[in-house]
Write a structure and sequence with these properties.
Elements lengths: L25 H16 L4 E3 L9 E4 L11 E11 L3 E8 L2 E11 L1 E7 L5 E7 H14 L10 H18 L1
Antiparallel strand pairs: 1-2, 2-3, 3-6, 4-5, 6-7
Bound molecules: nickel (II) ion.
The site of nickel (II) ion (NI) has 5 residues, from helix 2.
């Protein structure tokens, strides 16, 4: 397993729409393992393949609490089937937007369809932090970032800050 470099805002790669994973083979499983290692190393609770520059519909998540047994979840081609009308708000962050956090309101519960590591189609109903995390990661597959869900003023401020920082690195 390899820790991959993360793509950081305002890299336009983050705005790409990812394509479906065609088959679950050794390469796609290795990609999932690399993503988990990269996520744990960061550390973070979710990662989409595009965040390491791979435009494929693949998400890894682990929302287990610190000190608890790790519960790595891998979702190939995840799709939201249903969302509750009830909404919940979490303070979100993103490994591609380091050290920035903002409250985002989303449906409190969702049902997702996805393909698991064995290539089997599965459905999962999620609420709480897992529901929020899944929605955040699935957004990445469509080129959407959590800052797209906050006010324009705040979003422009963050983008400006990160654009400046990126220029300073060159
Ligand atoms: Ni993110």
């Amino acid at each position: 397993m390899t820790i991959k470099p993360l793509i950081i805002l305002p890299d336009p790669v983050l705005r790409q729409v990812s394509s479906p994973v065609e088959r679950i083979d050794a390469d796609s499983l290795r990609l999932a393992d690399d993503m988990l290692e990269t996520m744990y190393d960061a550390p973070g609770i979710g990662l989409a393949a595009i965040q390491i520059g791979v435009p494929r519909r693949l998400v890894v998540i682990d929302v287990s609490k610190e000190g608890e047994e790790k519960k790595p979840l891998v979702f190939f081609n995840p799709e939201i089937l249903t969302a509750t009308e009830a909404r919940s708000t979490y303070e979100e962050g993103c490994l591609s937007i380091p050290d920035y956090y903002a409250e985002v309101e989303r449906p409190a519960g969702i049902t997702v369809r996805y393909v698991d590591r064995d290539g089997k189609q599965q459905e999962m109903t999620a609420d709480g932090l897992l529901a929020t995390c899944l929605q955040h990661e699935i957004d990445h597959l469509n080129g959407t970032l959590f800052i797209d869900h906050i006010s324009r003023l705040k979003r422009e401020m963050v983008i400006r800050k990160f654009t400046k920082a990126a220029k300073a690195r060159i």
